[in-house]
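Help needed: design a sequence for this.
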């Protein structure tokens, strides 16, 4: 079955960096757009970045120039490199595989990122 397992979250000081990973299994990874989303308390889940199977990337306005999404289609993993972190980046970060045909969206369990001094 489809599994998405995020890792790499943690506590970091403002201005610091983190690299998130999402290990995927149970589907043909290279044929799907993959994306990172985040949600902080009291706010709606928002799109952070997405990447197509061939590497075309899109970013949310709030992270452009600071975050970089990438993927390894051999290791079935999508990454999110986060630099120049601010307290506003504090959230649970989720990896998502979108729906296709009759199959639903799939989400990972999330990884907490906390930016605080």
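Sure. Designed sequence:
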């Amino acid at each position: 079955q489809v599994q998405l397992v995020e890792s790499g979250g943690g506590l970091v000081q403002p201005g610091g960096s983190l690299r998130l990973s999402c290990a995927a299994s149970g589907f043909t990874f290279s044929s799907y757009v993959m994306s990172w989303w985040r949600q902080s308390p009291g706010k709606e889940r928002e799109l952070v970045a997405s990447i197509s199977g061939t590497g075309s990337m899109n970013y949310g306005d709030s992270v452009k120039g600071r975050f970089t999404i990438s993927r390894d289609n051999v290791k079935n993993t999508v990454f999110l490199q986060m630099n120049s972190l601010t307290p506003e980046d504090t959230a649970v970060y989720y990896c998502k595989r979108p729906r296709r045909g009759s199959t639903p969206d799939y989400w990972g369990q999330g990884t907490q990122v906390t930016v605080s001094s």
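Residues 19 and 81 are 4 Å apart (CA to CA).
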